[in-house]
Amino acid sequence: MQIELTRSPAVRRLLKSRWPQLTILTLLLGGFLLAIASGWAGTPVGSANFGIIFVWIAWWALLILLVVPLTGRGWCAICPIPAPGEWLQRRAVLEPTERKPGWPHYRWPKRLRNIWLQNLSFMLLALFSAVILTTPRATAIVLAAMLFLALGLSLIFERRSFCRYLCPVSGFIGLYSQAAPLELRVRDKRLCRSCEDKPCYNGSEKGHGCPWQVFPGGLARNTSCGLCLECLRTCPKDNIVLQTRPFGADLRQPSRKMDEAFKAFLMVGAAVAYTGILLGPWGGLKQAAYRAGSLAWGGYAAAFLAFTWLLIPGFFALAVGAGQRIARNTQPLRPAFTAFTAGLIPLGLAFWAAFSLSFVMANATYVLSALSDPFGWGWNLFGTAGLAWKPLPMGLLPSLQVLILVGGLLWSIRTIQRTGAELKTSSLPVAVFQAGLTCLMLGLLL
Amino acid sequence: MRRAERACRIAILAGLLLLLAVPFLARKAEARGIVEVHARMAVAGGWMPGFILAQAGVPLHLRLTSDDVTHGFAIGQSDRPAVDVLPGKMTDLTLTFDKPGTYTFYCTRWCGPDHWRMRGTIQVNGSSPQVPQPVLAPLYTRLGADIDAPHPAPALPASPPSVSRGAALANRLPGSVLSPDYVLSHSPAQAFQELRADPRLASLTEADLWDAVAYLWETHIPGGDTAEGKKLYSQNCAACHGETGGGDGVFAPDVKALAGKSPANLADPGSMLGASPAVLQGKILRGGMGTGMPAWGPVLTELQTWDLVSYLYSFPFEEMQK
Predict the structure, then answer these.
(1) Element containing residue A182 per DSSP (H, E)
(2) B34-39 and B47-48 as β-strands: parallel, antiparallel, unpaired?
(3) Do the Cβ atoms of A374 and B87 come within 8 Å?
C-alpha cells in the first residue's frame, strides 16, 4: 500500500529541518566514540564492555531485525561514521555554506564504481569476525578504522565515496533495502527532466547535492539512496516524496549486476557459515575461527571463502542452468543468473534475522548492565550494572526462527517465480536450491 | 558564519570532548588510593600487577577483576577466606597487614592451564626498622633428606593394613617409634623394617607390624588432621594428582605436555610407603621435581602441610584395598 508520508506538511517540515537528523546523528557519534573508547580502554571481557554489547548486540539487533527490514537505508540517514568527514567536506554542520573546500575532491575511480570493494571489505571483516565480535579491542580498532577511513576518503574523494563504495555495512543494507516497504522517489519524473539546475544533485543554498552521487530523478531502486533527505530540502518543486510501498517492491525489477549478485551470495553464505561456526556444536571450528593468523584459521578462512564465493554461486548457477534446460530456454546464463539472485534477498534477510535472534535474545540483558558500567570499571550509573544475566524467554525462539525462515523461503520463491516468468525459464531448480539452503539453516539452528 | 552554525559546532565539539574526557577523569579521581588488580589465566599473564606495596597497619584497598574466566583471590598462610574474582565485575577488598613481610596471593579456582602459577606478592613494609624474625628451616633440610631422589619402598604389605588392629598393638611397640619425630623422619617401609629387626617383636607377624605402622602414620603425624588435609588436597592438588591421588587429574595431560612427565601417582604404595613425611612435606613446600609442581611454601602454613601429608598416606592404603 502506498502512503506518501511527505504529503503531510508537518512531516515534510520535520524532515526538511536539519535539527532532528543532526541531533540524532551527534548523539550516535557520541555513542560511537564511547564504543571505541570503552573497547580500547575498558574491560577486555566482551559481555561487560559497552563497545561489544552496543555494537554487536544492540545496534546489530535493531539494524537487522527492524531498521533494514522496515526502512531499508534508514540507518545510513543517521550513521555517524561519515559525519566528521562530511562536515569537513561541506565546511558546515548545518546549512550549506558559500565557502568551498580549499582543495579539489576527486571523483571515485570509474573502475571501482561498483560494490566489489564492499564485497571484499565485508569478507575481510567476516573472516576475522569471531575475534572482532568477542574482543573489545578488536572492535575498537575496526570502528576507529572505519571512522578514519571515512574521514580520510572524504578529504580526497567527493561526497560519500566511503559509504557508496567501501563501507562493509552499507553494501548489504543497500541490497536488503530493496525489500523494505519505504522509498524515496520523485513524484513526477518529467519535472526532473525539465529542471535545469538539478540542485538535488548539484546542491543549492537550501541543501547539499546528493552525497550518494545519485540523481533522484532516475531512482528506480533503493540500493544507492541513503535517505539523507538532502534532495527533499533542495528540490525547488517539492517533487521528492518519501512513501511506503509493498515489501520487496524493487525485487520486481531485479538488478543484473554481478557485484550485487555476489553481495547476495556472500550474505546468504555468511549467515549459514556463522550459524554453523558461532551457534553450532563444533568446538574445533570455533577455535579455528578465533585463532586468527594460525594455520587452522587459514584452513577455516579458505573453507569460508570457498563456501561463500564458489560453492553457493556454483550450485546456484547449476540450478539456474537446469531451469533454462527444463524450459528449453537457450538465452545466455548470465542475465538469468544475476536476475534470480533477487530471490536470495528476502531469503538472506530471513537467514540473518533468524541467526541474529539466537544471540540477541540470549544476550539482551547485557545491554542494561553495560549501559550502567560501559567500561567495566565497576560503575553503576543507572543502577542496572548488577543485573544478573537472564536470557529472554528462549522457549519462543525455535518457533520464531521457523516462522521467519519459512516466511523468507515463501517470499523468495514468490520472487523468483516472477523472475522466472519474465525470463521465460523455470524457477523450480532455484526454488529447490533455496529450500535446500533453508533446510540447512533450520538444521543448524534447531 | 551564522550564529546557529557556530553554536552547533561548539556544542558538538564540546559535547564530544566532554563525553570522552569525563569517564577517564572520573576514573582517575575515583581510583586514588585503590590498587586495581586484574586476573588473567597464567598463560595470559596471571595477576596484573603481580607485585603490590603496602604498609603494615595501613588498610590496602584492592579492586579485583578478571579479564577472562572466574578466578579466586586468597592470601597465602592466612585464614582469610578466598573471594571470587569474576570476569567484567569489580570486587572490592580491603586488607590490613599487622606485620611487615612478604605475603603471597594466589588463585584458588582451577582457572586454566598452569593455574597454580597465578601467584603474586604483597610487600608489606613496617614504619619502624624491621627486626628479622628467626626462621626455622624446614624439617627435610634439617634432616638433610634428598627430596629429589627416588624413594622405592624396600618392603610392602602383602594385604591392606588395618589401623584399628594396629592401635591394639600400640602398647607393645618400643617407645622410640611412638615419638612424632621418629614418624616424621622415617618412611613407613623403613619403620616396618626396623620393627621387624627388633627381637622383642619377633612373635608378631608381618601383617601385625604393618597394622602398627599404619596406625602410627595415621595418628602420630603432629597436627595431621586428615579431614582438613582432604579439603586442602581437593582445592589445591586434585587438579593434577586426581581426586584419588592416581596422578590423573583434569590438568594431568597439560602437565605431561608441558613438563614431559605426568603428575606423581600418590596412590602407588611402592613409592609412597618409601617416603617419609619430611620428604613429602619438602616436596610440597619446595615443588619442582621437574614436573611443574608448584612450591606451596608461601601459600600453606606448616600445620596445613602436615594435614596434607597425613591425608596423602591414605591413598596407598586405599589403593591396596581395591
Answers:
(1) strand A182-186
(2) antiparallel
(3) no
Q: How far apart are CA B210 and CA B313, in angstroms?
A: 13
Tell me, what's the pLDDT at B133?
Answer: 66
Interface of A with B in 369-428 (CB under 8 A): 374-378
Q: Are B262 and B252 in contact (CB under 8 A)?
A: yes
A276 touches A444 (CB < 8 A): yes
A55: which DSSP letter?
I
User: Does A49 contact B at CB distance below 8 Å?
Assistant: yes
Count helices and strands (H / E) in chain B: 13, 9
The set of cell numbers assigned to A86 is: 562530511
Distance, CA of A439 to CA of B13 (rounded, Å): 51
Q: Which residue has the higher pLDDT, B275 or B218?
A: B275
Contacts of B198 (CB under 8 A, 6+ apart): B174
8 Å CB contact of B89 and A33: no
- Is B131 touching A (CB cutoff 8 A)? no
Express as a percent the part of chain A with pLDDT over 90. Answer: 85
Write down the residue that cell numbers 537472564 correspond to: A390
Count CB neighbours of A382 within 10 A: 11
User: Which residues are CB-contacts of B279 (< 8 A; sequence separation ≥ 6)?
Assistant: B140, B145, B147, B151, B187
Hey, are the CB atoms on A95 and B16 less than 8 Å from each other? no
The tens digit of pLDDT for each residue in A239-249 reads: 999 999 999 99
Does residue B135 sit at the A interface (CB-CB below 8 Å)? no
Burial group, residue A379, by CB count within 10 angstroms (0-12, 13-18, 19+): middle
Question: Number of helices and strands (H, E) in chain A?
Answer: 24, 2
Residue A80, pLDDT above cutoff 80: yes
Percentage of residues in chain A with pLDDT exceeding 70?
100
Whether the CB of B67 is below 8 Å from some CB of chain A: the reply is: yes
Residue of B nearest to A36 (CA): B20
The pLDDT score that the predictor gives to residue B113 is 79
Q: Which of A17, A19, A38, A45 to mutate to test the interface with B (most CBs of B within 10 A)?
A: A45
Size of interface A-B (CB pairs under 8 A): 63
**pLDDT, position B131:** 62
Of the candidates B12, B24, B90, the beta carbon closest to that of A93 is on B12
Where residue B242 falls (left for φ over 0; alpha for ψ -120 to 50; beta otherwise) is left
Q: Check A37 against B23: CB less than 8 A apart.
A: yes
Task: Name the region of A148 (left: φ>0; alpha: ψ -120 to 50; beta: rest).
Answer: alpha
Question: pLDDT (tens digit, 9 = 90+) per residue, B66-104?
Answer: 999 999 999 998 888 899 999 988 999 999 999 898 999
Choice between B163 and B277, residue whose per-residue pLDDT is larger: B277
Chain B residues closer than 8 Å to A37 by CB:
20, 23
